[in-house]
Amino acid sequence: MPYYISDIKPASDRKFRLRYRKLRDYEITVFDTFEWQLVRSGRAVWSDGKDKFLFDKETDTKAGYAGRYLFEKLRIPVTEHSFDAGGIKGRLYAVGSSYIIYTEEPQEDFAFHYCAEELKGFGQAVACAAARCGDPMLNYTTRVQCPADSDAILWESMQRVHSDLINIMRLNTDGILKGYDAEFLHDFRVSVRRSRSAMSMLKGVYSEDREMRFRQFFKSLGEYTGRARDMDVYLEELEGYEDILPDDMKQSLEPLKSHFRAERDKSYELLQNFLTSEEYNNSLAEWERLINSRAEIGRRGFVNTSKAAAKALAKIFGRVELMTGGVDGESEDAQIHSVRIAFKKLRYCIEFFGLFIKEQNTADVLTRLRSLQDSLGRYNDLSVQCGHMQERLNSETDPKLLAACGYIMAVLAMKKAQEREQAVELIRIFRKGKKRVKKSLGI
């Protein structure tokens, strides 16, 4: 059943004489994630007041959505008309500032005469209307970059970077406090890590004692968020582990799930208490004053940003070269973890200063780094999960639960070995092409 979209309401002319009859007025409520994740991917969840529908690029179906927490994001007025255009019968919907035309049979000549494009369904029109609403969260991203001012001093550039990171933290704080879903904590945690990385990569932008104070603040914040994030990841994975267990072991996992839910709740409670504490809010306000105060500029704050970027990139890349030199299939978890952090800092540095490097040069490098980080991240998650599972094996006495834990531990160990093999191979490939990477980055 074809739908079409038009920017203007079709009117009578020599070719088509249109007759309209107004049927009804109603309102559509659009639901989406905090940062419009569905609409940005061309999908939509909406309600007409009676039923809730999911548009998934192919069809409009009554459906639930099992992804992130959905907020009521937008209400769009709709006016529905029936129309007749010389025997062509259909419906016209005024949806916000767009017009959606539906005909029972394809009417290519009529559509060509009036319409901009054919749609997959009514939901695509809803997604289009929502995308035009002007909500700044449609442009939400956790990635920040220095402004590309070749004359800017480092303090000015990092003021922009740190201000953006503070904003991301604040945007996600309410979602953590209310426990909407795990991605609020993930984005918050990424901003904390980037703040720490910026200070460790670029020491001396602020006075030494102030930097030391806030490096400790962000380290503590990272510890609060780390445990909670580990539990989120573990619980998500635990749901899948049930599927790999023999049927007679599936019920044995329930005490384990309860244990990790309790651990997650406890870690979130500690984090939420900290985020609402006077200590946290005063420290964040103090940090914001520091990054905006010229009186606190340190010895390296006056260095030219592009020169500082080149130096930081060279230093971090050198560290990556050194740390990856001895990585192989027998490397300890601690060494793999250190390599993961080094690659993460390199990626952050490229993102911070990417505007000072030709974009076509950084795109390939960032793609390689993302693949590496994804693999190393999965390996780290599996290592953490193995550690937690071993703790349970050491403390449990129930024979059925011990058997289930042992079974899962064996699967985790196998996955971990496979991921290690892939990560080591990706590191080898990266090292093989390091000369090209250095040339691309101008170091």
Write up this protein.
Helix content is 58%, strand content 14%. The chain has a 9-stranded antiparallel beta sheet. Strand 3 and strand 4 form a beta hairpin. The radius of gyration is 27 Å and the shape is globular. The termini are far apart. The model has no long low-confidence stretch (mean pLDDT 88).
Radius of gyration: 27 Å
Q: Considering DSSP H and I runs of 4 or more, what fraction of the residues is helical?
A: 55-70%
Oligomer: single chain
Q: How many helix segments?
A: 13
Measured distance between first and last alpha carbons? 57 Å
Strand-residue proportion:
5-15%
Bulk shape = globular
Biggest pleated sheet: 9 strands, antiparallel
Helical/strand content category: alpha+beta
Key structural traits:
9 strands; 13 helices; nine-stranded antiparallel beta sheet; about 450 residues; alpha+beta
How would you summarize the topology of this molecule?
Elements: E1 3-6, E2 18-32, H1 37-40, E3 44-47, E4 52-55, E5 60-62, E6 71-85, E7 88-95, E8 98-103, H2 108-114, E9 117-119, H3 122-131, H4 154-178, H5 182-201, H6 208-244, H7 254-275, H8 278-291, H9 305-324, H10 333-353, H11 359-395, H12 399-432, H13 434-441
Antiparallel strand pairs: 1-8, 1-9, 2-3, 2-6, 3-4, 4-5, 6-7, 7-8
Helix pairs in contact: 4-5, 5-6, 6-7, 9-10, 10-11, 11-12
Provide a compact summary of the structure.
It is built from 13 helices and nine strands. It has 443 residues and is of the alpha+beta class.
